[in-house]
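Re: export button greyed out
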Amino acid sequence: MPRKRVHIHVDGAVQGVGFRPFVYRVAHDLGLGGWVCNNSTGVDVEFEGEEDAVELGLRRLRSEHPPHADISGVSVAHCDPLGGEGFVIRSSDDTGGTTSVLPDLATCEDCRREVFDSQDRRYRYPFTNCTNCGPRFSIIQEIPYDRATTTMRGFDMCAACQAEYDDPLDRRFHAQPNACAACGPKLYWRDAVGAVLAERDAALRAAEEAIGEGDVVAVKGLGGFHLVVDATSETAVGNLRQRKKRGKKPFAVMCPSLDMVREVCEVSGVEAEALLGSGSPIVLLERRSDAPQGLLARAVAPDNPRIGVMLPYTPLHHLLLADLGRPVVVTSANRASEPICTDGAEAVQRLHRIADWFLDHDRPIARPVEDSVVQVVLGAPQVLRYARGYAPQVVANQVVAKQALANQPVTTVDSSEVVLAAGGHLKSAVALARDGEVILGPHVGDLDTVEALEAFEALFDDLAELQGVAPSVVAHDMHPDYQSTRVAQESGAETYAVQHHHAHVAAVIAEHDIDGEVLGVSWDGTGYGGDGTVWGGEFLRASRSDFERVAHLYPFRLPGGEAAAREPRRSALGVLSEAFDELPLDRVSSLRAAFDSIELDTLAAMLLRSLRCVETTSAGRLFDAVASLLGLCQHNDFEAEAAMMLQFEAESVAEGPVFDAPLEGESIDWRPTIRRMVDALDAGESPAALARGFHLTLARAVVDVARRHDLQRVVLGGGCFQNRLLLTETASRLQDAGFDVYWPQRIPAGDGGLAVGQAIVATSRNT
Amino acid sequence: LAHGGGGRLMQGLIDKVFKTAFEGIGLQSTHDSAVLDLDAGRLAMTTDSYVVKPLEFPGGDIGSLAIHGTVNDLAMAGARPRYLSVGFVLEEGLEMEKLWRIVCSMRDAADAAGVRIVTGDTKVVDRGKGDGIYLNTTGVGVVASGLRVDPSAVEAGDAIVVSGDVGRHGVAVMAHREGLAFEAPIESDSASLVAMVHALLDAGISVRCLRDLTRGGLATCLNEIAASAGRRIEIQEDAVPVDEVVRGACEMLGLDPLYVACEGRMVAFVAPEDAARAAEVMRGFAPGEKARVIGEVTGDDRALVVGRNAFGTRRVLDLLSGEQLPRIC
Ligand SMILES: [Fe+3]
Ligand SMILES: [Mg+2]
Ligand SMILES: [Zn+2]
Ligand SMILES: [Zn+2]
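Workaround output, generated via the alternate export path:
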């Protein structure tokens, strides 16, 4: 058998996931010589040996790679055999570190087994991890990724851990956060003022006892502190709501096992996959009507047919939940609209009077990372909040990837420009375009508080630094008063303003690797239109670089401007004042009852005189208005509450009347819809059927606009398309009409995905 | 009113209205320029034009506003206002009676502020080319030697005192113009701050910086000072006095009272140990009755204004572009 030597280049997310030890094991098994080495875009391998063994090795590289390695291309070149050598793992540089930054990964099955095995040396050790799982993004401080550049730098490995770390055949070979009870981080149990009362397993037991008794315990996890209470206890959950000043906004729960999730909720195959995936997000699930009494307190998610559920994703959570044997509420430890706390002392100070106890640990958190949120719609997962387990990953290509022949590398057009995108004001997140790809950073939150602004600024610098690049262009929204716009303008780099709804569409174009023009349906609550009005119900003929507004919802006025986002009743008055010559308040009794007489006189006068009114085409506000007219919600206790109420109401029935909403010129005229709905309400028709009918009416109106344009591809984007019913109805009607339909799945539909679109538009601007 | 052209009719107007009204507080000379006697010290000078609809509103009118605005600007530099000039642009058809009321209101305001109107100018424009009256006032005043009242004097740790409840002027004018009725009538806060400022200086308070709140209200004013001082400012939002009726009106109108115009309010940046005493001194004057310490300058050298609410949440009080476009989705 002749000898053969090949050089293999593997592209993709293959660093820090145990790829090199995997290659080592393959070579070891097959008796191959050569080496494996990280490089800037992936991994280089050389195999030498008998021809059959080399071929087998190549096949195994492609078929057996580690679970979290994401191979985008493999190229093979033949070279001259060098003769008798062993196989070695070469260091990529002096430190042996890697340049890629990976998201945190949920505990793998092997590590979980060890933690519950009383014979294992990591029995009940809450910081167990390996190359297939554990912290990454939340502990990395600098590149290259190496133990010395993470928050694990203060922990010296014991001999046993070091031996694992050094052994290429071990699951923990070069696992940077590798640790055990003898050498690694440990737990501390602190009282409300921060005094340490217990350590290690005793701390965990104390936390379990306190939670069992109904106390509020702040638990330091992977990306920050959570507030944890017994989800079966009405008193405990009510107490948490009161202390956090949280009205009706649903809490997420963590369940000990998938079996228990199934007791409470309907779980489809795709939903189970999402729950169990390495991202381990919160998944929004439909509640079971026959769920056993007492497993979830009503206060967890009042009046909500769905519930956000996640499974344990660190050994600490696995131990806590297994010992408690019941679901717990797990919510970001912060005051309203602040980012999550990451530091023990800071938590004690900021959570004063909220948490009774603190389960702290001494592995520092490099940056706050919140839990991700996912829903399954039309049979596929849709990320609603992109954070832990997902960020920071490549979500799109800067230019269309041209798929070459099978087994050939995916080619990307080289782009030397590095673009940082600042995102929006709410649900802020930054994105970075470099080397032809766009990386989305984690959800930071709304930029109204100083804490959020500071976290945002840190992340703004951080994302580029972690990739070892410096942005030459900073993209931002056109809104002059977004904090993210300010930060972009103060960055010193060249700036590029991107229209809000174009960014929503461009994000989806890029996510689905679309070339050329699409009809972009960009619906949300608010976006700066650049023409002095507020957009939000837009139809754009759009490409990556340009857009033209071809249609929109019929405009209406919001009395009091931004106040309307908090009070759907204001949107309702604005909508009624367009649809009727005189406000028909005697026919919409629940709306009438939402105002006192001074309020009503003032708002009516404001509308009459266009005083303090903002003109808008916002779809989000139109949903608010209808929710208000139907008596479902007059004041938003949390963002999009009214729209959610309207969706749930609509989903409670199977049918609804489709109303008239003609396309007049560039406007979808919803006024006849509103007039018919007021008539129907007056005639005593059920709000549920009307709510459903409203969704169907808008879905059909989208098809009407699409038919008017010669574009085969229709892209749906913006926060309104997180509405499962609207998305399902719109997408399926468009498909039935013969269009190709795309919607956000990997990237949040709402403003959390804005930065990706900004990065795409900015990088495409000259082409 | 039909007195354009600068002829006899105009001379009659000047004699009949302005000289009569302003007699005794300065305007006597028919020379082209006023010649001013000034004591030793440095001279402060400021000018401002006034456009307001309606001309008369609860708590004031364009006349008193034009006096208060200019004397307050002088006072904010630590100056004692001494002389004013007044320029009138009158629209043909203006009722003489209204003009007389406004001119008398100017005289009273100047009197109260201890300032003399020494020169003036009048132009009449065609009907429809103006809003009744536009006014310009220019003032000079004297600053005591060695006194430095300036944003660059602001230091970390300085206390911030606001002289009274905020947001009244903006809401009062809007409500009156648009015919809106709230739980109770709202009056403008238009007032002279001259006496109060000099009482502060005379009391030996270490005053670093003074600023009257005008367009953009308290939040905008604090942003300007934060920017020129290069410092972070933190205020306790619930310490800022806001009249309950004004608060309710703002809520309806979708306004944040911290951003609504005032015409007789100021903030004083003073040494921390003088904060309580400064508020005490201010409370001795009508426009300072509700004076309160509301916040401080922090050690952070990034210009930012932060409002802390009762729950402890700290919101960023931005300098807004003025477009008032919603950010909330
Ligand atoms: Fe948006
Ligand atoms: Mg002025
Ligand atoms: Zn593992
Ligand atoms: Zn160890």
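The longest helix of chain B spans residues 96-113. The button fix ships in the next patch.
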